[in-house]
Amino acid sequence: MTKKLEGRVALVTGSTSGIGLAIALGFAREGARVMLNGFGSPDDIAKARAAVGEAMGMAEAPYSPADMSKPEEIRGMVAACQAELGACDILVNNAGIQFVSPVEEFPDDKFDRIIAINFTSNFHAIKAALPGMKARGFGRIVNVASAHGLVASPFKTAYVAAKHAVVGLTKSVALEVARGPVTCNAICPGFVRTPLAEAQVKPLAEKHGVSEDKALTDFLLDRQPTKRWVEVEEVAEMALFLCGPNSGSINGTALSIDGGWTAQ
C-alpha cells in the first residue's frame, strides 16, 4: 500500500521534542523524508534524529540547528533542506516558546523573542519555501498556532498576540496561493501533553493544596471541557491529513484540537 507522503520532503521546525517530534515521526512513517530543527541537549537531539531516521530507514534524520529568531538562519535552513533532500514540499512551522507575566511587568526582550520565534519565523520560512513549492507544483504549509490564536488568556500577551498573528498570516497566505497547488492552514491545539506542560501540574497542586489530578482538571485544564490532555499524536494526525491526499481544498483554515475550549 502506498504511504500517504511517499516521495515528499518535509521540514518541521521545533521538532526535537513534543508536538514537532510527533509530527516528524508521523510524516516519516508515512514515507516522507524529514528534516528536523530545534534546540535541546545533544543527547535529546541525537535521540530525535535516530528515532525519525529509523522511521525513514536511515541512520539519522537530517537536522538544522537554525535559530528561529534569526531570519538569515531560517533562510539557510530552508536552503539546506532543499540542497540535502532535493525539495521542501511540506513546511510545518511549529517552533514556539512561552513566558507568563502581567503586561506592565513583561520584559521587553522576552516579548520580542516570543514574537520572533512564535510568529515572525513563520513568515520568513514561508517566504523562503514558497517559490520552490510553486516551481515543483506542490506545497503544503501547516502553521501550529494554538487555541490562544483564537481566544485569549491573561498574562500571556506576547504568546496570544503571536498566535493570533499566525492565524492571520495563514489566511492571507492561503488567499495568495488559492489558485495554485499550495495550501496553507493552521492547527490550534489546546493544552497538549508534553513534558513542559505536565511539569506545571505539581506546582499548581502545591499552590492550591489539592491533588495533582484535581490541579490538572480544575486549574490547568479549567477551560478545556474534556478535562483531558490533547495528545501529541492527535495533532500529528491532523498535520498528516492536511499534507496528504484529498486535502487540497482545505485552505486558510484554523482547525481547533482543543477538547471544546473555543466552542464556549
Short description:
The chain has 2 domains: 9-192 and 230-257, Rossmann fold (3-Layer(aba) Sandwich), CATH 3.40.50; 193-229, no CATH class. Helix content is 47%, strand content 12%. The chain has 9 helices and 7 strands; from the N terminus they run E-H-E-H-E-H-E-H-E-H-E-H-H-H-H-E.
As a whole number of angstroms, the C-alpha radius of gyration is: 18 Å
Structural class comes to alpha/beta
CATH topology of the largest domain: Rossmann fold
Roughly how many Å apart are the termini? 41 Å
Strand content bin: 5-15%
DSSP, total strands? 7
For this structure, what is the CATH homologous superfamily of the largest domain?
NAD(P)-binding Rossmann-like Domain
Write down the domain tally.
2
Largest sheet: 7 strands, parallel
Order of helices and strands: EHEHEHEHEHEHHHHE
Shape: globular
Keywords: Oxidoreductase
Family: Belongs to the short-chain dehydrogenases/reductases (SDR) family.
GO molecular function, one term: 3-hydroxybutyrate dehydrogenase activity
Pfam families: adh_short_C2
Features:
single chain, 264 residues, alpha/beta, Rossmann fold, 2 domains, seven-stranded parallel β-sheet, 9 helices, 12% strand, globular
Q: Could you explain how this protein is built, in words?
A:
With 264 residues, the protein is an alpha/beta fold. It folds into two domains: 212 residues, 3-Layer(aba) Sandwich (Rossmann fold); 37 residues, no CATH class. It contains nine helices and seven strands; from the N terminus they run E-H-E-H-E-H-E-H-E-H-E-H-H-H-H-E. Strands 3-2-1-4-5-6-7 form a seven-stranded parallel sheet, sandwiched between helices. Helix 5 links the parallel strand 5 and strand 6. The longest helix has 29 residues. The radius of gyration is 18 Å and the shape is globular.
